[in-house]
Prior knowledge:
By secondary structure, this protein is α/β, with parallel strands linked by helices. About 45% of the residues lie in helices and about 15% in strands. It has 10 helices and 6 strands.
Amino acid sequence: MVRRVEAVVFDVLETLLDLDQIGTRLEEVGQPSSALGSFFMRFQRDAMALSLAGDNADFTRTARQALRTETQQTMSDDDIDYVLDGFSAMPAFPDAAPALRRLSEAGVTIGCLTVGDPENTRSFLRKAGLDPHVAHVVTSDAVGVWKPAPEVYRYSAETLGCSLEHMALIAVHAWDCHGAKKAGAMAGWCSRLEGRPGEVFLPADVTGRDLVEVVDELLAL
């Protein structure tokens, strides 16, 4: 029997890696830690807007501008550098390693689909102890457009060496799962962040309260 899921790509930020470290650093430079959520949302929105305009958004430049704007131009360049350096020290969520391990033991090819530089992403995964399980890192830099553009998911399937219909994306963002489904891939949505997927997005193929539960559901397809 041929397994339906041959490869899985994980979203990285907020799915595998915990951003709370960025909030801590914001507080250390005199900003409220609660600014993390609005900063990250602005960063994602601005990057998607640049992509829609035909530009390839640079991770660091876009993040710096979003941070300046969200804090009303009150941060020095040194403070911005310190906060953004927190991306290199993000811990993994407790469910990340067990989920990756289950897929690896099942013989499923594992990749990560994220933004920014692939070597930086590898470094983030290595420091979080997740790198040994990840065969491929696909980033927006390689594709020239940000998620949820369909080209990103198509390129991911090509990189992981499988057809799009046999690849699944796992993410905590319903919009990301929607993008994968629209492109023709499968999707596993973890409710850890958003609680409910909402009504405007296509339903994921499987859902779970944590990444392990999502992986188990995908392997059972």
